[in-house]
């Protein structure tokens, strides 16, 4: 916040203490077995861990303006013995615990016999409209303490209360940027007089804030705003006092004497801070960019731009680098079309290309650059006809072609009249703009999903080693993961699946000999890892890929005929599918097999057929094993909560349509653990209204990706749904529930204090897996923590934020942090720890699988007869998954 406002001063980031569990020797052993031995499940309890006194927090760096960012330190505890042990073996399947609904939770449920007592402070009663999240039960103590740096900058609150004013602009303006231009003119004209030399921070909508009161309670201003075309436009701006935000309330909350989060006060300060940083910069939500920062092309007319993310949070202001936003490049629309479509020579567009261009340009602002005339329009559509075919009726009632109009009025000959025109109006009242006289305005965010080449360019541009970015800132039965990874060589799966009936279909153009060799490599690896594979049911089929559905139905029919003769009553267990060389067929194959035919499948990209890579075969073997009911690995030391009583770990996620798609439904998915090792999960999914985060059909569901503003709504709705589901099984049945939100898409980063200290960093220069932080940068009173459970690969590792919203199981800090970290080593699809608990990961995969089921169920209306609001209101139900597919982890 600018010092002149008197509301607060900023400090450079200061050292913050936290603790991280750094993995020590012996704490990551994986137990495995051979094909002749039973499962190895150690029953020895974990021995008490040795605690080391916490390191004292470094002295505070001095406050002041103009100083470089000072490191925010956190002591991190690293996992100690037994935190990540896994058991693997080959023997009979592990008995499944009866699925009696025990603590359904956002992610984890548990009961512990001890609990750290929280300090009791006098608290102001909170609203009865909220379920109050549990207080922090103390801080974690397990592990070796280290110091890490966080990208948080401490903020000192001033003494003046922010005053909020309602702003009404007449005539109404819908553009936030235009509203800000009008308010800027008001401040420039009246700050020294009517505003009493006070600044105003405006949110671009209905609210403005000042440090202290303005000289009036209600006043109307007349503002004259210059337009780009040289004209002037008059607006009336009414400014009316609305409320005073209590800084002292916020100060009490930060000190722990007040439980009610003064979110409105924090939002007011947030707006003030963003206003100060927004001048001469590009604002995208909470992210701030500038063309003065590093920029570069991503291809297809799209640039990346470096920037930073700014957000005030309780006890912290998170100034986090956010480098994940792309922008349209300022260029002529005709040039953009050529680059976007990858055309080397100009020419007319096919209907398919026109639709692509329409989706890319819809709602983009363009400036007409024709002689001295300049005006900005928003693109609404792209015409079906070429520009040379378009006409309109002029003021004299004469029909005039677009080409003739520009030639006669502006002496401009359109060179690309074969291209369609932009329509900046409506279908009823079109405003046609030739592409070659329109330039895309600079600094517009690219909202669509990046393609593979753009993603690669973004990673190359943004994934720097953390030191560079923030300078200053078989025979074997056990295996010990090293820095979050391990090798399956000489190991067998804990429970190798049996596949008696399987087949192969090849849609690619690869030669039959190469395909046979590739399939033999997969099966050999599966057998080497402990699976049982009988000979192929029918010879490999190589149908034409032009009609995939018909080909799959024919393969299913052949297999059914063969099974009727060999094993009546049996069905195909696995279909290995080599996809066509063209992209886009994966979703179709999965939808047909899983919802129509009821066949579990493993799809393979044709580019891997000729490589015969053992690592690829091993990855496929792990996926195939869980798809046929096997178990790859379990924790060597039993998870206490799961071992002591029947417990279910739930995971839930909601996936929304791709950026730029406003008509599709959102997909909700939930998974639930089916065994005491928390390695087998069943999944359910459902469609719900567009962009809705709260799960409607949750009668039993951990939530991934819920924003903090949605915590209370999600908690109120979904705990009620869980209770109803339990009551439907047995009257008065109320298992203890723990509800945890998993947040991955945040902007907090943790860095080693010393990048050259190999004992505290991995090969990528990141903090070690197992690092947990629950002090300083976490919530002042509630139960949350940051956990980096995975090893870095490229760029800066992002810790996962776990926030406990509801806890009837009374977890201790160490108990929940250890459980969460351990579970991250049980992910079935790879031999490395993952960044979020597998329950949330599997729910995410399930939701995305359901997205494939909706492909082809509806297409975008080209007639313009239905509005976005109408399309959004319709929720198409998902096709049902066949029972034999639901019984296994088909989504892996």
Automatic annotation (TrEMBL):
One of its GO terms (molecular function) is RNA binding. Keywords: Repressor, Ribonucleoprotein, RNA-mediated gene silencing. SMART domains: DUF1785, PAZ, Piwi. Residues 29-49 have a biased composition (Polar residues). Residues 574-855 form the Piwi domain. This is Argonaute/Dicer protein, PAZ. Belongs to the argonaute family. Ago subfamily. The keyword Repressor applies. GO terms for biological process: defense response to virus; regulatory ncRNA-mediated gene silencing. Residues 1-116 are annotated as: Disordered. GO terms for cellular component: ribonucleoprotein complex. Residues 332-442 form the PAZ domain. Pfam families: ArgoL1 (PF08699), ArgoMid (PF16487), ArgoN (PF16486), PAZ (PF02170), Piwi (PF02171).
